[in-house]
Amino acid sequence: MRLWNSLSLLFALFAAHCLCADEISFERGGQRIDLKGEVIATHEAGIILHTPDGKMWPIQNTEIIERTKTTAPFQLQTKEQLIETVLAEMPPGSQVIETSHYVVAYNTNRAYAQWVAGMLERLHRGFTSYWTQRGFDLQEPQQPLVALVFDNQDSFAQYGQAELGSAAKSVIGFYSMHTNYVVMFDLTGGAGGNSRRSLGIRDIQRLMSRPDFQWSLATIVHEATHQLAFNAGLQKRYADVPLWFSEGLAIYFETPDVSSSRGWRGIGQVSAPRLQKFQQAARESSQPFLPDLLINDDSLRKAATALDRYSQAWAVTYFLQKRKAEEYDAYLKELSEIQPLHDPTATERVRLFQKHFGVDLTELENEVRQMMLGLRP
Ligand SMILES: [Zn+2]
After folding, report:
1. 213 CA → ligand 1 middle, Å
2. Helix (H) or strand (E) holding 47
3. How far apart, in Å, are the Cα atoms of 60 and each of 26, 32, 36, 43, 238?
4. Taking CA 183 as the corner, what is the angle to CA 205 and CA 170, rounded to the nearest 5 degrees?
5. Which helix (H) or strand (E) holds 67?
6. Domain residue ranges in the chain
7. Using one digit for the tens of pLDDT, what is the confidence trace for 269-319?
8. Which of 46, 58, 21 is nearest to 36 (CA)?
9. Sorted alphabetically, which Pfam families does this protein's record hold (predicted)?
10. Distance between Cα 206 and ligand 1 center (Å)
11. Which of 46, 195, 261, 268 could be disulfide-bonded to 60 (CB atoms 3.0-4.6 Å)?
12. What's the pLDDT score for residue 5?
């Protein structure tokens, strides 16, 4: 009897603490989608479901048809299962390269994919040692990080269409919060049976060191930095971190470093194109930008204002990292704790910024301007 009691108590404890999977059926675009996963955030308007393949699905309550709790615990796919999932999403005949932290799936020249894998690992090492030296206790990603490398811009755009729409045709690469993948294409022109098929890793390295490749390369490093920030615990996917902050952080790491075999020297260098843009805008207008930058995420998304805004996001990040590192780290720590679907208001955003960097935004902005006008690209 006593044994039975303790057993049922154990069972009750298990049931109360079981990280059991949820089964959710919902309708989107006229289609029924059935998923099993773990609800990681809830809000009056909807939920976010984390599925075993590492994807995250924001689902509106109004889309949900059925929701049940299973008795089986939620489990993420193993590396082997994840590779199967990824290959099923790539064009037929695609292959993978596995490194310590990444799975690189590709349908292009293997040497190119190897070059990408090597670059990602070096960035990973640089990123990890940078934040560890700053005293951050980074998390190990829950699953291997996935990168997709398509053979050319067309097949890349075809894949990207579902998430980016027509914008997929005009970008070089992207990180998806939904899939958690970083997606790119072969910048050397792809395999496709052309003469570049025979390029070896050294030829690719030489090609990528050319000045005309630097901007494209910076974009890939930028996107891969987003992936690292979201998987190392600096940011949570779908949490409302100010956009200027995540973009500024990615730009801070984006300066390419193709030459060195050890370390990653691109961290925290002056970004020449961003600096030039900032200086040009600052000379043309003395209108304050900081108060709006802190709260207006759309201004970074709209084509008309994006370039100026990215340069300001970089400038503020550069200034804070170089001059107010401790305050920046404390601010970053607090931002990393924002939970998905619990969006701070604009006033709360400004207050949090002021809590760490002082209430006088005009004074701070003047210091940023002064520093930027004194820098050389
Ligand atoms: Zn970005």
Report:
1. 18
2. strand 46-50
3. 9, 14, 16, 9, 14
4. 90
5. strand 64-73
6. 19-73, 79-234, 272-374
7. 898 889 999 999 999 998 999 999 999 999 999 999 999 999 999 999 999
8. 21
9. DUF1570
10. 26
11. 46
12. 55
